[in-house]
Design brief:
By secondary structure, the protein is mainly alpha-helical. The protein is built from 4 helices and no strands. The chain is elongated and about 75 Å long. The N and C termini lie far apart (80 Å).
Length: 87
């Protein structure tokens, strides 16, 4: 009886971890497949700042992540130019 209870508890614990891992994997896939334009990052400053922090933290990037990081950097550069040269 104790063995049955122990096995049941272990299965529940493992299934919970598996669901969490699936959620994280889905989020990573979603992030890897979304490339925003420079204009989008210009229009959404808060998202641009978050993405720039994420890009700095990445050690390895996929081609999609690299393109998205480039667009965020271009938008940041243009935003700073616009703030600098306003008359």
């Amino acid at each position: 009886m104790k063995t049955l209870i122990l096995i049941t508890v272990a299965l529940f614990a493992l299934s919970g971890c598996n669901d969490e891992q699936k959620k994280e994997a889905k989020q990573e896939i979603k992030q890897e497949t979304s490339v925003y334009t420079v204009q989008y990052y210009l229009d959404h400053e808060d998202l641009r700042k978050v993405r720039l922090r994420e890009c700095r933290a990445l050690k390895k990037t996929t081609s999609i992540q690299k393109e998205d990081c480039i667009n965020a950097r271009k938008a940041e550069f243009r935003s700073r130019q616009n703030k600098t040269f306003k008359f």
